[in-house]
Amino acid sequence: MVYKKHGMKKKYTAGEATAYISRKNARKKLQLSLADFRRLCILKGIYPREPKSRKKAGKGAASNRTYYYTKDIQFLLHEPLIEKFRAHKVFLKKLKKAEGRRDWKKADQVRDQRPLYNMDHIVLERYPTFNDALRDMDDALTMIFMFARIPKSSTVHAELVANCRRIAFEWMNFCIHAQCIRKVFVSIKGYYYQVELKGETITWLVAHEFAQEHNEDVDYKVMRTFTEFYANVASFILFKLYTEDNLKYPPIGQKDYDDDEYVKRQQSDLESLTLELRKSKAIEESEDDIDELAAATGDEGLQKAIEQEKTQRSQKNIFKGCKVFISRECPRAPLAFLLRSLGAEVSWDSELYPGASFKLDDDCVTHLVIDRPTAPQKLGRQAVQPQWVFDSVNFGGLMPTNDYVPGAELPPHLSPFVKEGQYVPPDMEVLQSKARGEDPGIGKDSDEEVDEESDDEAEDLEEEEEEEETEEAEEPPAKKMAKVAIEEKKEDKPKEFKKRDVKAAGRDKQEPKEDVIEAEKNKLARAAQTSKKRKRLLERIEKSERKDRGRIEKLTNKRAKIDAAKKAEAKKSKKAAKLD
Amino acid sequence: MKAQLHDIVMPEVEEPKTKRAKFSRKTKKGWKKIDISQEEAALEQKRFEEIHFGGDLSKTKDEDLFVIDRKPVKKKKELDRTCYHDKILANKSKVAAAVPVENRPESRKSILHNDNMLKRKAKIVDVARTDLSKKLTAEQILEKNKGLNNNYDLWSANTLTEKQKFIPAKHAKHLRGLEGVKAPKHMKFKPKMMEKVEKVSVAHAGASYNPDYDDHQALLLQEHNKEFKKVKSEDSYKEKAKPKNVATEEEMARESMRGLGILPDEDDDDQYETEEESTEPGFVKKPVRAEDRKDKKQRRKEKRVLAAQRAVRRKKQMAILLNQFYSIKKIKKGLREHEKELEKQKEFRKEKQEKRVPRIGVLKADMNPDQDVKLSEELVGTLRQLVPEGNVLTDRLKSFEARTMLEPRKKQKRHKQAFKTKWQQKRTFREWDEQFEKELKKEEKMES
């Protein structure tokens, strides 16, 4: 018999050894299978943690195990879902038994008694406020849009797929209504969208159509669980968003079920993104006149804010008045989504998809989005490639269509998601100025020297404007019509806007951010004189900035060299041509 | 309409045969004789009418089909400018476009099942028994009871009645008699990596479907470097895995030729070896002789000498130490430098710790997964010709793992059979075969 000595304590009875619990022990405590345990943790938002000392947490064993906080697991003990999981296990046993005996009647009975659960309390527990939930929508939407397109299988039930489809369409329809789309990037993976809702920026990815291959390395059960939870959160969010905007939710009402035809039509409208969302109450919305407000206040900060709001409003409606016909080879859903959310009316081949509102031959069509080498010509109608839409969204203005004519070599599709301080290719400036309706002096000056032009830019600008005016007289009417929209925009904007620094405008529209960063840095510099820690922080920041600057300089130099070489070559070839 | 009727050539309908042949239907031969051409023709006719006239012709009134031409109108025929091939390709069918699969109405059975489901869903939240017994439709029940199908405002306090609400603490009391079970405080704080890593990381600008030249090159370089590193490390493993001190082929060949007088430098080798043999030193311990033994006097003297030497050494040491007093500044400087270095190391370690990815399982998470890339020659100018890359689901899984939301896992492959099955011929067969072979050989011998 070993006696406990005075002041001795048994090892591993306190501290890290008890704060952490290994996955195996947690499962034992909860009496759950590994699959059920994983599912529960995903639904409840309980993640594995890394202990500070593996050896202590493992009670002497330092192997790479998965650990959880013991308190988390204790909290899980009270979860009612566990009961439901057990009930489901029993249900499966019963079903298997009935089916094994080929007693189909009994099996049907059992199947009808499938235990159901709801996880509202978990949603509320994990997201105490609405904005908390919105912040997590990035993940949710990417998963939901992914699952909306997965074929049903033994691991992915049709019910979940249908639910995801519904949520995806309801979300897109709401985004169209709220006009909240800010950025879009067409990558080889799919479409990245960014919206701004209730002060939160939400980015999500939608894969290209027909692109997804089945990957056997992915555990579909785990992904399904994530999606199940996110779908629940998303539907709560949608309810709140719809009702806060005075819209009825669900958009296709349950009361309308008597009229089958009507519901069917509504359903197809929802899926073709042409549904007019129903208002729950008839309230006349008085539009606040911003100009009046601006005149009334003398506050500088407010003025600035109003100016921003103005530009944002104009960007929200860049396609207003456009009637766009989407040709059948173009991706219909993303184009319809973007065009409609920025004010355009869209239509497509009525045989391709329901919900078409006008035909290609109609005179009202102003733009034809087509992705073929040639397009049928018609007076008063512009044929453009799909990229015109994406670039217009990103640059906040209608791009001139002559760069996007079918068959033409397109300008590069630049990512609007590039962070501040990163390298911006010179094409960006050209495109930005084009979006503003200016004629950039870069690119066309193949035979003149660049230096001459850069000497007096201000004069040049005026000259170019004059040139445009003279050009207008000679242009065919079809081109003219499309130009009207750009022209109008031009007049709206004050001249200062033109001279503004171009780099800051396009990729990251939040200009005040820079000021904030600058102020923060100044503050830090002052504090650095007193504290070592802050001094080091400042040093680190400056070092990374220097590094970035160096990289940018390198790239711009490289680009300049390439441009110069190109120009020289062009000159040579021209001379050679002259000699010939 | 007149012109149309004239233009369209009606498919000929065969006259049905009046006489029915009598034959036995007992055998398969007889079955073939049933003539369904009549039915097929009728169906074809019906389809034809549906496509060209939008319904049954016999049921339409004559007035709809024909117009009595009262006035002779002299109207110039409008020139049809559509191309001939367009005319051929145009869709003339009057049958409406097929409804997309996803829009098709549900089957009756699934609706029934759904109905049942919704009713039972209503049971999760307290629903008045009277409502359930009233034979209300599922939709009506849903409408009446908030808390089903997420059709209520979760975040405002007063949308649900007390009965409809689920309160975890209440449940806990029901379960184990405990009251006021609260979520642990640390649940508010997510793991470090969840804050650090972006939820949806947008693809590199060079992964655009129509990328800028610089961006694309940057992405290619980045991925190339990654791949290069990988290949290099793989190669180094291979190098390390090679067995050491194993003779190369060249050495083997050389060894086999040794002593035959073929090798040019063989003679030198031999010489060297002989030299070595001659200069071999012997390690024989010398025996201690009596005359070599030290006497007491000698030992004392030795002791004295050693003590004197020690004293001198100590004196010198002291002098050095005393002298150091004058170089305190220098020493201090050295100490400071040492401290600085220590601090640097500390900081470095701290930074490393910050950058470290927490290990939450047996496997390591892939923090910098390979990006999808299109090579320069694979780039196409238009969206139509684009062949998409990557898999969103794989991406998501990697993102979850990088954010330590899931422990990294690898799908286990099924084990192959441990031992190969051996096949053996039965003895009787084998004996027969052997005998047969023997006979064959005999015959061959006879022939030769």
UniProtKB/TrEMBL annotation, chain A:
Biased amino acid composition, Acidic residues: 446-475
| Top-level lineage group | Eukaryota
Database matches in CDD domains: BRCT_pescadillo_like
- According to the UniProt record, where is the region Disordered? 432-580
- Which Pfam families does this one have? BRCT, Pescadillo_N
- Decide whether keyword Protein biosynthesis is in the record: no
Location in the cell reads:
Nucleus, Nucleolus; Nucleus, Nucleoplasm
Q: Which keywords, in A-to-Z order, does the entry hold?
A: Nucleus, Ribosome biogenesis, rRNA processing
Bias category Basic and acidic residues: which stretches?
A: 435-445, 485-523, 538-580
**Cross-referenced InterPro entries, in alphabetical order?**
BRCT_dom, BRCT_dom_sf, PES
- Domain BRCT spans what residues? 314-406
Q: PANTHER family, alphabetically?
A: PESCADILLO - RELATED, PESCADILLO HOMOLOG
As for family, the record states: Belongs to the pescadillo family.
The UniProt function text for this chain reads: Required for maturation of ribosomal RNAs and formation of the large ribosomal subunit.
Protein name, per record? Pescadillo homolog
TrEMBL record, chain B:
Which family is this protein grouped under?
Answer: Belongs to the NOP53 family.
* Bias type Acidic residues, positions: 264-279
Compartment list: Nucleus, Nucleolus; Nucleus, Nucleoplasm
Q: PANTHER family this protein is in?
A: GLIOMA SUPPRESSOR CANDIDATE REGION GENE 2, RIBOSOME BIOGENESIS PROTEIN NOP53
Q: Which stretches does the entry tag as region Disordered?
A: 230-306
- Briefly state the protein's biological role: May play a role in ribosome biogenesis.
Task: Kindly give the InterPro entries that the UniProt entry links to this protein.
Answer: Nop53/GLTSCR2 (IPR011687)
The parts of the chain that form a coiled coil are 328-355
Compositional bias of type Basic and acidic residues: which residue ranges? Answer: 230-242
What protein name is recorded for this chain? Ribosome biogenesis protein NOP53
